[in-house]
Amino acid sequence: MRTAWQKPAPAAGFTLIELLLVIGLMAILMTLLAPAVGGFGKSRALEGAGKRVSALLDLSRQNAMSRNSLTALVVATDGTAKYRAFTILEAQPKSDGSPLSTSDWKQVNRWEILPEGIAADQNPFSSSSTTALLPALPDLVLQGAPLPATSLRYVAFLPTGKVYNATSPSSITLVEGVWEEGTSPTYTQVKTGSKPANFYDICVLPATGMLKVHRP
After folding, report:
1. Which one in 8, 63, 68, 80 has a CA-CA gap of 20 to 30 Å to 23?
2. Looking at the domain 33-214, which fold is it?
């Protein structure tokens, strides 16, 4: 028996209609928000990748100074992790003072692979476009496959912390995009023309080896 102060329960049909309307509105909102959420996630991935590459550059410079060795951060321009794989190599001077050779390069850390959808742009850094690194870099192995030295680009640091044979700043630009066939990546987002809408540019000053970061 219902007392005078009790309110009648809402009709079941009315509650179901309300529920269906709420579900419909949520579905529409999720559809509208999905691109923005996806873009935010990629932007965070780009930021994280940029900080990781910056840390590898700093580590390379510190290794050169603390171990009195020529140290290079290299990026693979071929293979399954094309323009996404980084590692550090060092060549320590010989005790007898004899010249270094390609076999003196040693890989000092594992390959660091950037997340899918984040890659170095088509102008990955190289500390000199006219003078090759001496000694020449060795062939490496990436994800179980041989990687020839011709598929490596680098920035190298001297024991003083300066950049090897560089008179102008070296830089690497990370972008949201993927490498397929061809000589440039396909950008996920394009601002104007063929320019990426989002990037993380790391500039290495030649005289000091210090870094400067540029973001849009």
Report:
1. 8
2. minor pseudopilin epsh fold (3.55.40)
